[in-house]
Design goal:
The chain is an alpha+beta fold and about 190 residues long. It has a domain of about 110 residues: predicted glycosyltransferase like domains (Thrombin, subunit H), CATH 2.40.10.220. The protein contains 3 helices and 10 strands; from the N terminus they run E-E-E-E-H-H-E-E-E-E-E-E-H. Strands 5-6-7-10-9-8 form a 6-stranded antiparallel barrel. The N and C termini lie far apart (about 40 Å).
Amino acid sequence: MIHDSEGIFSVQRYCAFYDVQHQTCLMRRAGVYIPASDHVRFYCTTQEFISCPHYQKGCASFLQEGEDRNILIPDDRRRYPRKVKHFPVTLGIKDPAEGDTLKVLDDYAVTFDIGLGGMGVETDAVLPVNQIVSFIIKDEAGSDAGMHRGEIRWSAHRVDRPRYLLGLSFLDYNTVKTMGTRMDLGR
């Protein structure tokens, strides 16, 4: 758990879909998937769960269902189109009293879509709308793309698991430029 002045943020460091008690993967929609012990050690019980093929396929399925039911904001309402891409993200808040030190809120967040104007993030942290956050995102090669700032535009609790979805808009041109080049998001 990560503590801050306003409360406690619970950060999950393993896959939310791994049922420890039954040793099964809950990401599966039909049937039961019992992952092999090597799979559990490498993916299910580590931060590498976002690289798990079952997790990625399940995320894509959730996004497709959302698009089919018009749950996600249609592209024609966005200034910049979004691409479904999954990048590791660290979310935090800079405390002016501590200089440029980042107070980490979630070290294991992941994008579910990203564009030149902002990104959708799945996180364990509960963040209010209009909150300014700092974030560090890794590109497709796993390289750190630097620290940037964004504003939480919307936030929602996942009804199907104990995670949150949020929409984050980029606050400056440098961030937009970095995302466009490092994340291959050109218009």
